[in-house]
Amino acid sequence: SFFTLARIAPIEVLRSTEKAGGGRFFWLIYLIPIGGLIGLTLTQVASPLLVLFLAGGIALSLIVMMALSVGVLIAMKSLSDGAGVSWRFGLGRLIRNKTASTFQISTIGLGLSILILLSVVRGQLFDAWESRTPDDAPNFFFANIQPIEREGMARFFREQFNGAPAFTPMATGRLVAINGATPVAEDYPDPRTSSRIDGNLNFSWASSIPPGNEIVAGHWWEPGSSEPVVSLAARWAEPLRVDVGDTISVRSGAQVIEARIINIREVQWESLTPNFFVLFPPAVLEDAPHTYLSAARLESEDQKKLIELNRLFPTINIIDVGAILAQVRRVLDLVSLALNLVFAFTLAAGGAVLFSVMQTNQESRIRDVAMLKVLGCDRRRIRRALNFEFLTIAIIAGALAGTTALLTGQWLAERVFEIPYATNYRELIYAFPTSVIIVWLVSVLGVRRAEYAPPQALLKDVTT
C-alpha cells in the first residue's frame, strides 16, 4: 500500500529488497475497506441491525472456518508420518505457516459458501415455498358479504356451482389493552406489530378449531362456552410478548371485551382459506357488527359466472387470488433470473478473489519449487506435490463451504421464509468437485512459471 511505500528508504528500492511490515498499527489500514463495505451496505439496506448481523456473521464464519482448518491440518500432519515425499511437501507447506494457510482456506470456503447458498436460495427454497400451496387451494375470495346477503349468495353457488361455500364471520375493532395496560406502539420496534396497536384489528369466532390450525399451547374452549376467552395465532402473540393466561381487551363498536388468552395456534396460512390471528367463542362476540368472508376454487370455465354474481351483489368484493399468485410467480421468476445474474457475477468475482488469495503465497511456493529442482527433484514429483497442496486446500474449503451453506439455508428457511426445509446433501456433495475444479484451475495458472522455469531463474527472481 501507499502507507508501506512511504516507510521504505530509497536505498532499499535500489537494492530490490522488501521491508516487512508497516509499523505497529499497520493492520488498521485494513479497517478502511471494511468500513467502506459496511457503509456501502448501509446505503442499500434500511436496517442497520441487519447489516450488523451480516458483518458479524461473516466475521464469525471466517473465525470458525480458520479454527476448523487448523484442527484439520494438525490432524492431517499426524497422519502424514511415513507418507511419500509429495504428500509431506504439500502438507508441510500448509503447516509451516498455519495463519496464512488457514486464512487462505477460510477465504476460499467463505466465497464458495456464498456461491452454494445462492444456488440453494435460487432453487430449493423457492420450490419449497411454492409447494406449500395445495393444488386445490381456493383461487377466489369473497369479502364484505353482509348478513342479509349470505343466504342469497349461498343459493347462487348451489345453483351455479353445485355447492355453497363456507362463510366465516369477520368483525373489526381495535386492541385497547394488554394485561390491563394500554399498549404503546413505540414499545414494539417491529412495524407490523406496532401497526396492530395503532390500526384496526380483524377478528372472528369459531366453535371448533378451524382447518389448518394447530394448538401449540393451552386448550380449545368447550362447545357453547360464553366465557370471555380468546385464541391467538403464534405469529401474532409472539411479537406482542403475550402468552396463555395473559389478557387482551378489544373494542368492537361500543363494546369492549377483556378476554383471557386460552390457547396459542400455529396457522397454515399457505392453505389460502380464511384464517384469523384472533378468534373468540361464538357466544362472546356474535352480536358484534360483522360481515362474512368466503373462499372457493373455480375453474376457468366457471369464472365467467362471477359477472352475474357481481350484478346480483354489487357490494361484495371479489378477489382473484389466482391472478395475485400468478403475479407472485412472475415476480419469483424475475427474482430467480436476477439471482442467476448475481450468481454469474459472484462466480466471476469469486474466481478473481481466489486467484488473488492463491497469489499471496506464490513467492514462497516458487522458492520451494526452485530448491526442490536444485536438489534434483523431477517435474512430475513437483507437480504431484503442488497438486496435493491444492487438493488439500480445495477439500477443506469445499467441506467448510458446503456445511456453511447447508446451515445457512436451513436458518433462512426456518427463520426468514418460515417454511419446512428438508436438508439436501447434494449441495455438500457438489461443493467438493466445485471447490477442487476452481481451486485447481486457478492455482495451476499461477504456478506454471515455477514448474517449467529453470531453478537459476526462479532463485534469481525471488532473491533480487
Explain what this protein looks like in three dimensions:
This protein is α+β, with helices and mostly antiparallel strands and 464 residues long. The protein has 3 domains: 1-44, no CATH class; 49-132 and 328-463, no CATH class; 140-296, no CATH class. The chain is 58% helix and 14% strand. A 6-stranded mixed β-barrel has the order 2-3-8-5-7-6. Helix 6 (98-131) packs across helix 14 (379-416), helix 6 runs antiparallel to helix 15 (426-452) and helix 12 runs parallel beside helix 15 (426-452). The longest helix has 39 residues, at 321-359. The radius of gyration is 32 Å and the shape is elongated.
**Main beta-sheet annotation:** 6 strands, mixed, barrel
Which strand-content bin applies to the residues?
A: 5-15%
User: Domains counted in the coordinates: how many?
Assistant: 3
Distance between the termini: 20 Å
Order of helices and strands: HHHHHHEHEHEEEHEEEHEHEHHHHH
Overall mean confidence score, pLDDT: 78
Number of helices: 16
Strand tally? 10
- The helicity comes to 55-70%
Strand order of the largest sheet: 2-3-8-5-7-6
Parts with pLDDT < 50 across at least 5 consecutive residues: 16-20
Instruction: Name the shape in a single word.
Output: elongated
Structural class: alpha+beta
Radius of gyration equals 32 Å
Features:
464 residues, alpha+beta, six-stranded mixed β-barrel, 16 helices, 58% helix
Short summary:
By secondary structure, the protein is an alpha+beta fold.
Task: Present the secondary structure layout.
Blueprint: H1 2-6, H2 10-14, H3 31-44, H4 48-79, H5 85-96, H6 98-131, E1 140-145, H7 147-161, E2 167-178, H8 191-198, E3 201-205, E4 213-218, E5 229-233, H9 234-240, E6 247-252, E7 255-267, E8 278-280, H10 282-285, E9 291-296, H11 306-312, E10 317-320, H12 321-359, H13 362-374, H14 379-416, H15 426-452, H16 455-463
Parallel strand pairs: 3-8, 5-7
Antiparallel strand pairs: 1-9, 1-10, 2-3, 2-6, 2-9, 4-7, 5-8, 6-7
Helix pairs in contact: 4-5, 4-6, 4-14, 5-14, 6-12, 6-14, 6-15, 12-15, 13-15, 13-16, 14-15
